[in-house]
């Protein structure tokens, strides 16, 4: 029981402290600019572009796709920076020196970003309703809420994997930004997946977000929860696989770093 | 900024531009801003606009190139003074007999010129990957538009860089400034789609006139009169920007030298 309590305390403290540390140098204005206005402007840009392409029809397709994709701001950038932050701040050596439960420590880094990311999607969808008239009257809102949560967790799974990569490369912002923008193509946020070439469709299927965006579109169009259960199950599965891959990499890096004494250059 | 300084110190500006180019080619974030992001936006736009026909390919090539130009100006030129401060070279640069704005002009020249790569890479992408036959309708006028756009963007950058360092509050909005200009300048769709109240904002943005000139000369949608008007507007805004920049640099250097607040300007 004591071990469980200790692990939960570690999870929670790691969660809160890493999140606070990430935004410690931020002011509220920077948070609003980076986490609310930037994603909103991105959504408006792609919605207008899509609207121009489709002659004004199908606006919902672009609003919903881009609103859900906004979760990647927290899932990819936030989580990666929380994991990588330990290396940049020089605290990685101390973490590897503690007997703390690695799983709690590792997955705890993503927890606040799940909440933050899901909140961002809700804001984006609200803007979608206010600015572009997206109609939620037929939507099963609790199912949509679950979809947002599952998709955010799944995207954070990829973020955890990317975070591990940030421990071995100095070019983490290049990798992060590239992954974030590639998701705009491959997740189906802006292009219907079935119109992509076969190899791109196959790649889309192994990414988080793809099924989450599809589920959100079905639900907002009036679809039932039962219709999206298979999609959400796969979305969660993909996120878990990425998260575990990240965790195993993290453990492997620790072993390598300790064996080679190359902690600072891991 | 005084044009006289630029004429006197043109060799310095070119040397700064060369060193900046060499330095920045090792920076992966810069490669992302000028190469990867515009190419991804080009791929997205080419897929999204493909039903409108092949004639829109050139529009996308130019538009996505402009996104690279603006992102580069905002993030790289905007941080050009801040980066010197972080590297500890700002004090030396301010103490040089060469006017500081000439050095920043050289850095902006490098940033804007290297950003033109984004247009070339989008061109290659559209031609090779998507198989579009791309035809430049007015090549000479297009080259003229490119040259004037470079000057307009550099002048705009000379306003942004000191603004970001003098008023930190403005720089905090940097991340939120990227996409709004894509939208308001009509890089990839006409501003006629936007609400009417946004039109005056577009008119005071040099990137809007650059987009108009480059789109009209590349796709042949504008007559010579319209193109010359866009050029005139870019030159007008460049003069205004250079005037504002000269005041901002003077203010910044005053604070740095008299108040001795260079590190905390």
What do you see in this structure?
- The complex is a heterodimer of chains A (266) and B (265).
- Chain A has 266 residues and is mostly helical.
- Chain A has one domain.
- Chain A contains eleven helices and no strands.
- Chain A is elongated and about 60 Å long.
- Chain B is mainly alpha-helical.
- Chain B is 75% helix and 0% strand.
- Chain B has helices at residues 3-8, 10-24, 28-48, 56-77, 80-87, 90-95, 100-128, 139-166, 168-171, 178-184, 199-203, 206-219, 224-257.
- The chains are: A mainly alpha (266), B mainly alpha (265).
- The A-B interface holds A 27, 29-30, 32-34, 37-38, 41-42, 44-46, 48-54, 171, 173-174, 177-178, 181-182, 184-185, 190-191, 195-196 and B 28-29, 31-32, 36-37, 40-41, 43-45, 47-49, 51-52, 169, 172-176, 178-180, 182-183, 188-190, 193-194.
What is this structure, in a nutshell?
The complex is a heterodimer of chains A (266) and B (265). Chain A has helices spanning 2-23, 28-53, 59-69, 71-88, 92-97, 102-132, 141-165, 172-186, 198-205, 210-220, 225-260. Chain A is mainly α.
Q: What radius of gyration of chain A results from the CA coordinates?
A: 19 Å
Helix content of chain B: over 70%
Classify the oligomer. heterodimer
Encode the helix/strand succession of chain B as letters. Answer: HHHHHHHHHHHHH
Whole-Å distance between the termini of chain A?
Answer: 35 Å
> So how many helices of chain B?
13
The number of helical elements of chain A comes to: 11
Largest interface: A-B, 33 and 32 residues
Mean pLDDT of chain B: 86
The overall pLDDT of chain A, averaged over residues, is 87
Number of separate structural domains of chain B: 1
Q: What does the largest sheet of chain B look like?
A: none
Low-confidence stretches of chain B: none
Beta content of chain B comes to: under 5%
- Which structural category do the helix and sheet elements of chain B fall into? mainly alpha
Distance between the termini of chain B: 19 Å
DSSP E strands of chain A, number: 0
Give the beta-strand count of chain B: 0
* Strand-pairing-aware structural class of chain A: mainly alpha
Runs of chain A with pLDDT <50, length 5+? none
């Amino acid at each position: 029981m004591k071990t469980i309590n200790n692990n939960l305390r570690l999870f929670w403290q790691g969660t809160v402290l890493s999140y606070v540390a990430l935004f410690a140098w931020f002011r509220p204005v920077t948070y609003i600019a980076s986490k609310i206005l930037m994603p909103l402007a991105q959504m408006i840009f792609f919605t207008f572009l899509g609207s121009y392409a489709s002659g004004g029809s199908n606006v919902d397709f672009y609003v919903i796709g881009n609103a859900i994709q906004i979760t990647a701001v927290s899932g990819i950038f936030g989580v990666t920076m929380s994991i990588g932050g330990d290396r940049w701040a020089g605290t990685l050596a101390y973490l590897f020196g503690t007997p703390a439960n690695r799983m709690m420590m590792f997955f705890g880094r993503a927890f606040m970003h799940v909440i933050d990311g899901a909140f961002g999607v809700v804001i984006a969808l609200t803007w979608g309703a206010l600015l572009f008239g997206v109609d939620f009257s037929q939507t099963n809102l609790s199912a949509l809420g679950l979809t947002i949560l599952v998709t955010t967790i799944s995207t954070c799974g990829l973020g955890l994997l990317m975070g591990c990569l940030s421990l071995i490369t100095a070019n983490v912002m290049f990798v992060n930004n590239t992954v974030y923008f590639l998701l705009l193509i491959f997740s189906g946020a802006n292009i219907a997946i079935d119109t992509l070439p076969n190899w791109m469709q196959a790649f889309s299927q192994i990414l988080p977000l793809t099924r989450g965006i599809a589920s959100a579109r079905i639900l907002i169009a009036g679809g039932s929860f039962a219709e999206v259960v298979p999609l959400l199950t796969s979305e969660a599965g993909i996120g878990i696989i990425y998260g575990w891959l990240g965790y195993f990499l993290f453990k492997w890096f620790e072993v390598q770093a300790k064996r080679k004494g190359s902690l600072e250059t891991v | 900024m005084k044009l006289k300084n630029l004429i006197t110190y043109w060799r310095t500006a070119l040397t700064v531009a060369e060193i900046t180019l060499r330095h920045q080619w090792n920076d992966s974030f810069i490669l992302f801003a000028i190469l990867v992001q515009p190419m991804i936006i080009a791929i997205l736009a080419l897929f999204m606009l493909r039903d409108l026909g092949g004639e829109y390919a050139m529009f996308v090539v130019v538009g996505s190139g402009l996104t690279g130009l603006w992102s580069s100006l905002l993030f790289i030129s905007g941080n050009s003074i801040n980066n010197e401060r972080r590297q500890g070279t700002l004090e030396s640069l301010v103490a040089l007999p060469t006017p500081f704005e000439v050095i920043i002009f050289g850095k902006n020249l490098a940033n804007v010129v290297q950003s033109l790569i984004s247009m070339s890479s989008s061109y290659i992408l559209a031609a090779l990957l998507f198989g579009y036959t791309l035809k430049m309708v007015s090549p000479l006028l297009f080259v003229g538009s490119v040259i004037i756009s470079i000057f307009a963007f550099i002048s705009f950058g000379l306003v942004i860089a000191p603004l970001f360092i003098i008023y930190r509050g403005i720089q905090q909005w940097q991340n939120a400034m990227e996409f709004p200009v894509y939208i308001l300048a009509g890089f990839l769709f006409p501003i006629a789609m936007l609400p009417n109240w946004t039109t005056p904002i577009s008119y005071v943005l040099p990137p809007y006139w650059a987009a108009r000139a480059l789109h009209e000369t590349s796709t042949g949608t504008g007559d010579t009169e319209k193109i010359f008007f866009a050029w005139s507007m870019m030159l007008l805004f460049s003069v205004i920007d250079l005037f504002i920049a000269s005041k901002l640099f003077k203010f910044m250097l005053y604070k740095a030298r008299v108040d001795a607040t260079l590190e905390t300007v």
